[in-house]
UniProtKB/TrEMBL annotation, chain A:
Entry EC number(s): 1.14.15.45, 1.14.15.46
Record-given protein name: Ubiquinone biosynthesis monooxygenase COQ6, mitochondrial
Pathway entry: Cofactor biosynthesis; ubiquinone biosynthesis
Reaction catalyzed: a 4-hydroxy-3-(all-trans-polyprenyl)benzoate + 2 reduced [2Fe-2S]-[ferredoxin] + O2 + 2 H(+) = a 3,4-dihydroxy-5-(all-trans-polyprenyl)benzoate + 2 oxidized [2Fe-2S]-[ferredoxin] + H2O; a 2-methoxy-6-(all-trans-polyprenyl)phenol + 2 reduced [2Fe-2S]-[ferredoxin] + O2 + 2 H(+) = a 2-methoxy-6-(all-trans-polyprenyl)benzene-1,4-diol + 2 oxidized [2Fe-2S]-[ferredoxin] + H2O
Residues in FAD-binding domain copies: 53-333, 378-464
Presence of keyword Nucleotide-binding: no
Cellular localisation: Mitochondrion inner membrane
Top EC group: oxidoreductase
PANTHER family per UniProt: UBIQUINONE BIOSYNTHESIS MONOOXYGENASE COQ6, MITOCHONDRIAL
Function text: FAD-dependent monooxygenase required for two non-consecutive steps during ubiquinone biosynthesis. Required for the C5-ring hydroxylation during ubiquinone biosynthesis by catalyzing the hydroxylation of 4-hydroxy-3-(all-trans-polyprenyl)benzoic acid to 3,4-dihydroxy-5-(all-trans-polyprenyl)benzoic acid. Also acts downstream of coq4, for the C1-hydroxylation during ubiquinone biosynthesis by catalyzing the hydroxylation of 2-methoxy-6-(all-trans-polyprenyl)phenol to 2-methoxy-6-(all-trans-polyprenyl)benzene-1,4-diol.
PROSITE patterns per UniProt: UBIH
UniProtKB/TrEMBL annotation, chain B:
Any one GO molecular function term: metal ion binding
Catalysed reactions, semicolon-separated: a 3-demethylubiquinol + S-adenosyl-L-methionine = a ubiquinol + S-adenosyl-L-homocysteine + H(+); a 3,4-dihydroxy-5-(all-trans-polyprenyl)benzoate + S-adenosyl-L-methionine = a 4-hydroxy-3-methoxy-5-(all-trans-polyprenyl)benzoate + S-adenosyl-L-homocysteine + H(+); a 3-demethylubiquinone + S-adenosyl-L-methionine = a ubiquinone + S-adenosyl-L-homocysteine
Stretches the record annotates as Disordered: 1-25, 38-74
Location in or out of the cell: Mitochondrion inner membrane
Lineage, uppermost ranks: Eukaryota, Viridiplantae, Streptophyta, Embryophyta, Tracheophyta
SUPFAM superfamilies tied to this protein: S-adenosyl-L-methionine-dependent methyltransferases
Organism: Miscanthus lutarioriparius
Family the entry assigns: Belongs to the class I-like SAM-binding methyltransferase superfamily. UbiG/COQ3 family.
Protein role: O-methyltransferase required for two non-consecutive steps during ubiquinone biosynthesis. Catalyzes the 2 O-methylation of 3,4-dihydroxy-5-(all-trans-polyprenyl)benzoic acid into 4-hydroxy-3-methoxy-5-(all-trans-polyprenyl)benzoic acid. Also catalyzes the last step of ubiquinone biosynthesis by mediating methylation of 3-demethylubiquinone into ubiquinone. Also able to mediate the methylation of 3-demethylubiquinol into ubiquinol.
Ranges of biased composition (kind: Low complexity): 1-11
GO cellular component: extrinsic component of mitochondrial inner membrane
Cofactor (UniProt): Mg(2+)
Biased composition (Pro residues): 46-60
Name the UniProt record assigns to this protein: Ubiquinone biosynthesis O-methyltransferase, mitochondrial
Parts of the chain that traverse the membrane: none
Gene: COQ3
Length: 517, 328
């Protein structure tokens, strides 16, 4: 009786077994032309292409964080994952030397990022390498009208943030990944992405049975399985198939471009100079001063070293890059002290502000801390690098079988050190959504699933992008009246505890939206 | 017949482009609906007198001469409705959008009830490994595929041959779902073959069958003693009428008009009693509520519109069935 019924297991055992590995040929009815080229190319390769659940393009901090989060959760650790990146740093398998000179590329990680690293088991590796916690932060500007000091105490925390070299963050994630995986060498593909081919838009087209025979005889089972996956061509000639591609390949994302996802953004007429400087004493505070051309930040990085991120015009950045080290150090110390204007002190404005804000009925004990001058730099110990600054936001973070994370989805002004923290937020959110999908048996590349990640992150990222862009505009225009407003903002932040708390919380990544706590 | 339906639904006049048609009032919509469906499926000729019996009835064994009235739950008009829109099963913004959107929510209910009942690790990525599960009225396989990814050994049946074809082809493109056994059959036919499953799941089907009580009895007969039976449907309440039918079918245009007929809807009390009569005791029942702001569904105590019930087949019911589906 059973035999008379139209009954078939979907895999149709009658499909003949794999003869040659040319997986890319689509199922019945679809155009074949575009596939001829690789059919030929691959005919000589013995091994069939790898078929993955998740292919991560870009093994920077954010790409590694996604891999690490996925390998750490019970629901996702079985997923077959690959990281594609030719960066030689991915070959490291041990701790970086704590006594070397710190790299000039550093990140200020927020408590939210730290707790994410703890959750995925990577923070203990950071702790074994160089990092510097800071509990104080001072922000002021060159007009001498205002300053504000943040203290971790004010928000009941032990620290405000931690400065870690990017290579330490990458290495810690890598070491954690190695612990979680049987064989990390099978997961890292030390090569680059050349092209991506997405499955036909409407699979219906390929699906409509042209004859009454639904499963096209003449295609291999593998062909059928791959027809619905993304094909990745790599620069070493290999190709992969994956259910989901994660674009973690930085601000110039190849993945985003191939998927033709549009972006909005502009270049700021500014560049940032970054480098490492040395002091005679240890620096324990994050300093940021707004100068007429943009902010300069001095961040502690441990062992009497600090990191400089100094924003200025592109011409100025070239000049500062090429000047002698002695001249540069002088210029830094000048910029962090009396350069461009006086130290802020108690002024008539200060008094006015005090009166103004006391009317608001603020009961919190906001202690007015004294302005301090940052420790002097005694030498520049790294190469000076200059980067043009830009703001970019991707219109979509996801499409079918694709998700963008980190700088591939958004770059912000590096002003508040939020860039990579937003990226880690993306990584955590995406991994969580994938785990939720696995728990209910979804295809990990399912668009409706990925849209939940997009919804979750877009709001947070857009808010931060707008805040930082607003800050950038507010602090880069040198109009008299605006300076007063700006100073008032500083004073406001200094005096009103709740507002200040909310600014700190937001910058620390605890809050979703700064103004509506 | 099948050919014709395929061809006509591929013609540009149909698909999802709206063909201007005389408007129907909601009152009319409550009348038997199959004629409207059949007209979508069969030709581009504007409204005709009701066409002949709907296309693509199941080609089950029952049709091939052995005579027994085994298709008691089958309602030909209902089957025609689904045949006419079969192509669109996997279009997540097409007529089956509500099922796609609801899917994670109902699967999380199924996952948690089955994990508890069969003592499975809820943190496992394949918690249903080793369980034989049947999806009755699987449509395009929207539910069957996730069940297979969760590790279950899935058999999926539907009365519409075209649905089964679409479901098989879709599932074949992923090795983890390629093992699903799809059959064009009714539950009654499998009962006749004495097939048994650890879990029998039939979501959004009972409101489309001719005889819900007999349908419940079939579901029960397919379940091993102590096995699980899961059923979901739409309530017959004023709110369900307002939301599910008027809103979904007429205002939001999520569902093709006439997908649901008021008089065929089953209330939670009726469902519990029918299952009870069929030796399945309902142990858990929750509602699904739609949040129009987030566009997501969530589980809730409110069973006034959409609801799902988890029941356990009584063990004393039949020892003759044999208990060895695959438990343990
Ligand atoms: C001057 C400056 C200062 C900054 N300061 C801070 C700060 O203080 N705090 C902070 O949080 N953020 C800061 N940022 C931002 C931060 O550096 C970025 O947000 C962060 O590096 C983004 O990480 P990512 O993993 O998304 O991308 P990236 O770090 O850019 O990594 C991309 C990776 O993809 C790989 N890749 C690219 N193309 C391909 C391809 N085709 N195939 C394979 N692999 C590919 C690359 O090799 C690279 O390893 C700063 C940025 C700048 C420019
Ligand atoms: C609303 S769909 C539900 C599909 C699927 N269960 C889901 O929830 O995703 C109802 C399905 O039940 C099928 N159906 C209706 N009556 C049936 C019967 N008596 N036996 C088997 N399937 C039937 C229809 O063909 C249709 O595919």
């Amino acid at each position: 009786m059973l035999s008379r019924r139209r009954c078939f297991a979907a895999a149709a055992s009658r499909i003949r077994p794999l003869a040659r590995a040319f997986c890319g040929a689509p199922a019945s009815g679809a155009p074949r032309s575009q596939d001829h080229s690789h059919t030929k190319k691959v005919a000589g390769v013995k091994a069939p292409p790898d078929v993955l659940d998740v292919a991560i393009v870009g093994g920077g901090m954010v790409g590694l964080a996604v891999a690490c989060a996925l390998s750490n959760m019970p629901l996702t650790k079985h997923l077959k994952t690959a990281i594609i990146d030719s960066n030689p740093a991915l070959k490291s398998r041990g701790y970086l030397d704590k006594n070397s000179t710190p790299d000039s590329r550093v990140s200020t990680v927020t408590p939210a990022t730290i707790s994410f690293f703890r959750d995925i088991g990577a923070w203990e590796h950071v702790q074994q390498q160089r990092h510097a916690f800071f509990g104080k932060m001072q922000v002021w500007d060159y007009t001498g009208l205002g300053y504000t000091r943040y203290n971790a105490r004010d928000v009941g925390k032990k620290y405000l943030g931690c400065v870690v070299e990017n290579k330490v963050l990458c290495n810690s994630l890598l070491l954690r990944l190695k612990e979680e995986l049987d064989d990390i060498e099978n997961v890292i593909y030390p090569t680059r992405l050349v092209s991506l081919t997405f499955p036909l838009k409407s699979r219906q087209a390929g699906m409509k049975p042209a004859s009454s025979e639904p499963l096209s005889i003449g295609h291999t089972t593998e062909e059928l399985h791959c027809s619905n996956l993304v094909k990745l061509d790599l620069s070493d000639g290999r190709m992969l198939y994956s259910k989901l591609v994660i674009g973690a390949d930085g601000s110039k994302s190849n993945v985003r471009q191939i998927a033709s996802i549009k972006t909005t953004g502009w270049n700021y007429p500014q560049s940032a100079i970054i480098c490492t400087v040395e002091h005679v004493v240890e620096n324990d505070c994050a300093w940021q001063r707004f100068l007429p051309s943009g902010p300069i930040a001095l961040l502690p990085i441990g062992n009497n070293f600090s990191n400089i991120v100094w924003t200025m015009s592109p011409e100025e950045s070239l000049r500062h890059k090429s000047m002698s080290p002695e001249e540069f150090v002088k210029s830094v110390n000048h910029a962090l002290d009396f350069g461009y204007g006086p130290h802020p002190r108690s002024t008539a404005l200060d008094h006015y502000m005090e009166q103004f804000f006391s009317g608001i009925g603020n009961t919190a004990t906001s202690t007015k801390e004294c302005f301090e001058v940052p420790p002097k730099a005694t030498g520049v110990v790294s190469e000076r690098m200059a980067f043009p600054l830009s703001l970019m936001h991707s219109h979509d973070y996801v499409s079918k079988r694709l998700a963008l994370v980190g700088d591939a989805a958004h770059t912000v002004h590096p002003l508040a050190g939020q860039g990579v923290n937003l990226g880690f937020g993306d990584a955590a959110a995406l991994a969580k959504v994938i785990a939720e999908g696995v728990s209910v048996g979804s295809d990990v590349g399912d668009l409706t699933l990925l849209q939940r990640y997009e919804k979750d992150r877009k709001a947070a990222n857009v808010a931060m992008t707008a805040v930082l862009d607003g800050f950038q505009k507010m602090y880069s225009v040198d109009f008299g009246p605006l300076n007063i407003v700006r100073a008032a903002a500083f004073h406001g932040a200094q005096y009103i505890s709740p507002l200040k708390k909310s600014i700190i919380s937001y910058a620390m990544g605890d809050k979703k939206w700064p103004l509506f706590p | 017949m099948l050919r014709r339906a395929l061809l006509s639904s591929a013609s540009p006049l149909h698909g999802r482009a709206r063909i201007p048609r005389p408007s129907h009032s909601p009152i009319q919509a409550l009348l038997p609906q199959w004629s409207r469906y059949a007209s979508v499926a069969s030709s581009s000729v504007p409204p005709q007198p009701p066409p002949p019996p709907p296309p693509s009835p199941p080609r089950g064994p029952s049709r091939s001469g052995d005579g027994g009235p085994t298709v008691s739950s089958l309602n030909p008009a209902e089957v025609a409705k689904f045949a006419s829109i079969a192509e669109t099963w996997w279009d997540s913004s097409g007529p089956f959008k509500p099922l796609h959107v609801m899917n994670p929510t109902r699967l999380s209910f199924i996952r948690s009830t089955l994990c508890r009942h069969f003592r499975r690790d809820p943190n496992s990525s394949k918690p249903l490994e080793g369980l034989k599960v049947i999806d009755v009225g699987c449509g395009g396989g929207i539910l069957s595929e996730p069940l297979a990814r969760m590790g279950a050994t899935v058999t999926a049946i539907d009365a519409v041959d075209k649905n089964i074809k679409i479901a098989s082809i879709h599932a074949a493109s992923d090795p983890t779902t390629a093992s699903i056994e799809y059959c064009c059959a009714t539950a009654e036919e499998l009962v006749k073959e004495k097939r048994l499953f650890d879990a029998v799941i039939s979501l959004e089907v009972i409101e489309h069958v001719a005889n819900p009580l007999e349908f419940c009895e079939s579901l029960s007969a397919l379940t091993v003693p102590n096995g699980a039976t899961v059923v979901s449907t739409i309530n017959r309440s004023m709110r369900a009428y307002a939301t599910a039918i008027v809103a979904a079918e007429y205002i939001l245009r999520w569902l093709p008009r006439g997908t649901h007929e008021w008089s065929k809807l089953v209330t939670p009390e009726e469902l519990v009693l029918m299952l009870q009569k069929a030796s399945v005791s309902v142990e858990e029942m929750v509602g699904f509520v739609y949040n129009p702001l987030s566009g997501e569904w969530s589980l809730s105590d409110d069973i006034s519109v959409n609801y799902i019930a988890f029941g356990v087949k009584k063990s004393e019911a039949s020892s003759t069935n044999g208990r060895e589906a695959s438990l343990s």
